[in-house]
Write a structure and sequence with these properties.
Radius of gyration: 13 Å
CATH superfamily: Protein tyrosine phosphatase superfamily
Number of helices: 4
Strand order of the largest sheet: 1-2-5-3-4
CATH topology: Protein-Tyrosine Phosphatase, Chain A
Distance between the termini: 27 Å
CATH class: Alpha Beta
Shape: globular
Number of domains: 1
Largest sheet: 5 strands, mixed
Strand content: 15-25%
Number of strands: 5
Structural class: alpha/beta
Helix content: 25-40%
Amino acid sequence: MTTPWGPGAGVVEFPDGCRVRGVGWRHQQRWSHSRPDFSLVLLGRRPEFDVPWPYRWVRWPDFTGPRDRDDAVAAIWEVHERGRRERVDIGCGGGVGRTGTALALVAVLAGVPSGEAVAWVRTHYRRRAVETPAQRRWVVRTGGTLR
């Protein structure tokens, strides 16, 4: 078991102690020195680059919600569980919209009410996280069904 990483450099610590790092795959050279144990990759197409550690890809085009809700929810549950004991990250192209949306659902799993999850992630991760109204609606609608 790897020691979870501490807050900072995109690492978000949730109310239940789970820690997950948000990343932008376009900026991967900035964090490649700090390898995760597992990544959730949120891109519209399968990654065209080599991910040299275990990962799960969810088809999630930019500025929208995931193509398969059940797959995305299962992946977010997996991130939440792994984030309690492993170095886990979630990333999309820029590390803002889709990444923030997924982090907001991790926050719901960690005890944040779904109606407050977007604001919570914007406070604890990035102020522009969860970029579109559709992503905000997806958090509230999906978050309300997670418990």
